[in-house]
Structures are given as structure tokens and as C-alpha cells.
Amino acid sequence: MTKRGAVTEEETASFLRAGYDNRALLEVIMGVALMVMSNYTNRLAKTPLNESFEPFAWTDSRADPK
Fold first, then answer.
1. What pLDDT, on the 0 to 100 scale, is given for residue 5?
2. What one-character DSSP code corresponds to residue 42?
3. How far apart are the C-alpha atoms of 55 and 43, rounded to whole Å?
């Protein structure tokens, strides 16, 4: 996230050397994209957190989404 998608060739090569393939690389990208879209959608819709997840709720004192 901090590099805004700018993955170096060495980082990609390291991922592939770890035993993953290009398909797995795309799956990671899709997973991140899905999470970003889900987060934005839930913020816009003000979706309440499921009760079972409340003990794990994340808060950021720097940002007030209200």
C-alpha cells in the first residue's frame, strides 16, 4: 500500500522463487482490490459491524469517518 502498487522486479522474482506463480500473484492483487472496494462500500453505506466481530473492531484515532 505504501508504494501504491509499484512492485519491483526483485520483489516479483522473490515472490515467484518462494514457490508461487503468476496466477497466485494476480490472486493477491484481486484480494487487495476486493478488500479496498469492500472497505469503501461499507464506509459509504455505514454498514454496522457484525456483533460477533465487535471484540476485534479496529479504530483509528487519527480519522473520524462520521
1. 82
2. H
3. 19
Using CA atoms, how far apart are residues 28 and 16, in angstroms rounded to an integer?
13
> Could you report the average pLDDT of every consecutive run of 10 residues in the chain (66 residues)?
86 96 96 94 94 89 66
With a CB cutoff of 8 Å and minimum separation 6, the contacts of 57 are 49
Contact 11, 20 (CB under 8 A): no
Residue 36, phi-psi category: left (phi > 0), alpha (psi -120 to 50), beta (remainder): alpha
> Which grid cell is 18?
518462494
Closest CA to 1 of 46, 31, 23: 31
Provide φ and ψ at 13, rounded to 5°. Answer: -60, -40
How many whole angstroms separate alpha carbon 36 and alpha carbon 43?
A: 11
